[in-house]
Design a protein that fits this description.
With about 475 residues, this protein is mainly beta. The chain folds into 3 domains: about 5-245, Jelly Rolls (Sandwich); about 250-340, Immunoglobulin-like; about 355-465, no CATH class. It contains 4 helices and 27 strands. The chain has helices spanning about 10-15, 115-120, 390-395, 425-445; strands at about 5, 25-30, 45, 50-55, 60, 70-75, 85-95, 105-110, 130-135, 140-145, 150-155, 165-175, 180-190, 195-205, 210-220, 230-235, 240-245, 250-260, 265-270, 280-285, 290-300, 305-310, 320-330, 330-340, 355, 400-405, 450. Strands 1, 2, 4, 5, 7, 12, 13, 14 and 16 form a 9-stranded antiparallel sheet that branches. Strands 3, 6, 8, 9, 10, 11, 15 and 17 form an 8-stranded antiparallel sheet that branches. Helix 3 packs parallel to helix 4 (about 425-445). It is globular, with a radius of gyration of 24 Å.
Length: about 475
């Protein structure tokens, strides 16, 4: 492998010095200060939940499925001129050898016309608006892959043939002229400060740089020879990025409540917290413009929920409330979700009930096959239903007194991904359930709701009827179908 001497800090300085003032646009990962656990952090979304974990101060991809991604949700490249800079340390473990062409790096320009939550699901499959994958393969060669197409590369170096263990990736995306951009990326050996490889591609259309930015771990073919990647000290900045602090994905994911005369129950859904994290949640209500704490609840470690059970509630008035959780990382941060407990509509002659069921998150790319966003190809630009923004806005207009979710809030297969019924089934369920929570929380935090399960909610499609097949009979007379 040809290596060119270079001072690592000098390279970083040259890239950083080209940035304009970014303020809060700068993101720095906190895995070094995070306890070991499944949840990768409040500003990130993992595809899938069970495919990543924080371990020993690093973000580790534990899956060998293709194109696993961890999306940054609080910064997004907008349709304006500006630059994007990102750096990350990557380590690779392939002690058993490797198959295919494993690689790791950055995904940029993902889902430029999508809601940030929909764009955050982009992984596994190529397709329209899937972005540009800028990575380093197992042999030390940098490339830019057009992830909108099956197997097309804008550039792929082939100078190296030596497996690396650790690398420091440095990405620079900056405007040229006529609405085009220049992409530069370097791979540095963090021990010797020598360049492993570098790449420069010009005349990239501006729209290809707009959208989400994510980390990528691509293990190759996913067979018995496994390659794993770990990331640390990920930094993202740039004047093209917009900072949206409200776009966190946890720790609080959703709220539901129900009021029955003076009895109130509030269920709060959280991300799977680490064993060393705080496991209590606080509830405040607003009294005469002042917040007053009235209860605390313990977070269940299996369901990742906390339940507040309040008696002698004032059911004749609308009462604002908030729940908050203290997350201890490098610094302590309080995360808060607010809502309103609506008064009991005893003063109405009739009430408005909204009933919903069968919540699909995507339109399947092939109507004849039960496949989702992990089909290999997926039309991201057109086939995303999640997070149902238009539906939510339409439902708000009814000012409902009650929400009734009649089942199939979750589909175990192809909505958005295939079912994982093995040891990771609980995390797979949460991964899909969180999509429902983030979609409907605007409603469920301010309107009482009732939810009941159907077949898909219990990962058993067509449990009731089994496609009209005859159930058969046992000696005791119970059906076996």
């Amino acid at each position: 492998m040809k290596k060119i001497p270079v001072l690592l800090l000098a390279v970083f300085f040259l890239i950083s010095s080209s940035c304009s003032r970014t303020g809060n646009n700068r993101y720095v990962s906190e895995w070094k200060k995070s306890p070991d656990g499944v949840w990768i952090g409040p500003e990130l979304w993992a595809n899938r939940l069970q495919d990543w974990k924080v371990q020993d101060g690093k973000l580790v991809c534990v899956s060998t499925k293709p194109m696993r991604t961890a999306h940054l949700t609080t910064r997004r490249a907008l349709e304006r001129e500006g630059n994007i800079n990102s750096t990350v340390y990557v380590s690779m473990d392939n002690e058993d050898g490797y198959s295919g062409i494993p690689s790791a790096g950055f995904l940029i320009g993902a889902g430029r016309d999508l809601d940030y939550r929909a764009a955050s699901l982009i992984h596994h499959s190529y397709g329209e608006q899937a972005g540009l994958y800028i990575g380093l393969d197992v042999s030390g060669n940098l490339f830019i892959r057009d992830f909108e197409k099956e197997d097309e590369y804008l550039q792929y170096n082939d100078n190296n043939n030596e497996i690396w263990d650790e690398v420091y990736l440095i990405l620079s995306v900056k405007p040229q002229s006529d609405d085009h951009y220049l992409i530069k990326v370097s791979a540095i050996d963090p021990v010797t400060n020598l360049v492993i490889d570098k790449l420069e591609t010009a005349n990239i259309s501006a729209e290809r740089t707009e959208g989400n930015i994510a980390l990528v771990a691509h293990s190759g073919s996913g067979n018995s020879k496994k390659t794993y990647f770990a990331f640390s000290n990920w930094q993202v900045s740039g004047s093209k990025l917009n900072y949206e602090p409200q776009h966190t994905m946890g720790p609080i994911m959703g709220i539901q409540y129900m009021l029955s005369r003076s009895s109130l129950k509030i269920k709060v859904q959280l991300m799977p917290l680490a064993i060393k994290d705080e496991h209590t949640l606080s509830l405040d209500i607003k009294v005469d413009d002042t917040w007053k704490n009235i209860s605390r609840a313990t977070i269940d470690t299996v369901s990742c929920t906390a339940l507040f059970d309040i008696e002698e509630w004032d059911y004749k008035n609308d009462i604002p409330f908030r729940v908050h959780y203290n997350l201890k990382r490098k610094t302590n941060h309080k995360y808060t979700e607010t809502g309103t407990i609506k008064h009991d509509p005893h003063d109405k002659d009739s009430i408005t009930v909204l009933s919903l069921s069968c919540i699909e998150q995507i339109i399947k790319p092939d109507k004849n096959r039960w496949l989702g966003i992990d089909a290999g190809y997926f039309p991201w630009a057109t086939n995303m239903l999640y997070p149902h923004n238009q539906l939510i806005e339409n439902l708000k207009q009814f000012d409902a007194d009650l929400l009734f979710f009649a089942g199939d809030q979750v589909y175990e297969g192809a909505s958005p991904t295939a079912a994982d019924t093995g040891p990771n089934a609980r995390l797979d369920y949460l991964y899909k359930w969180y999509l429902w929570c983030t979609s409907y929380n605007e409603l469920t935090a301010v309107i009482p709701s009732v939810s009941i399960p159907d077949d898909h909610d219990v990962y058993h499609g067509n449990l009731w009827g089994a496609w009209q097949s005859h159930p058969g009979r046992t000696k005791g007379g119970c059906g076996t179908g």
